[in-house]
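Worked problem 6 (solution included).
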Amino acid sequence: MPFHRLRSAFLLFLLLGLGACASLPGPRDVVVPLARLQSAAERKFPLSQRPMDLIDIRLSNPRVALYPEDNRISVTLDARVAPAFTRRVWQGNFVLSGTLQLDAQQRSIVVVQPRIDRIALDGIDPVLASQVALAAGALAGNILQDMPLVSFASEDLHYGGSTFIPVSIATQAAVLVVTFAAIK
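Solution. The predicted structure is:
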C-alpha cells in the first residue's frame, strides 16, 4: 500500500475516532437553588410528634441553610412543646442538621446523620430541657434521616440519547451543584 493511501486511511480512522468521542456527552452540572430546598422542607411541615407518649412536639415554619464547609444542611423550626404531665407549653425553636448524600435507588439527594444542633425554649428549666433534648434527638432522626430533599425525574437523567447518573454534590452557600455523568 502506497504511503499516501496509508496516511489517508490513518487520517480517516483518526477523524472517525474523534467524531465518536465528540458524540459522547461528558459530565454535566445541575444547580439546585436554596429556594427549591426551602420549598421541599415546607412540604414536610408542620409536623406533630409525641415521642415516648410524654411530650407533644409541634414543629413548623422551616428555614433552610447550607453549610459548604462540612456539606451539611440545617433546618431551623419553630417549636411548641407541651409535656403530657403538665399544662405548661414552651415556645421556641429547634435547629436540626444533617449531611447531604446521593441515593441512587431513590434518584435523589437525601439527608443522613441527622442531629439536633440547638434547642431553645422560653422559660424551661435545665433538667426538663435535657429530657426534651433526648426526646427531640429521636425526633430529629425520624424527621431528617433519609429525607429526600431533591428527586430527579426520569427526564432529568436522559440527555442527548445518553443516560446520566448523579455522581457528586458540591454544597455552596446558596445552591447545591449536582454533577451527573453519562453511563457508558
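Discussion: The helical segments are 3-22, 34-44, 126-144.
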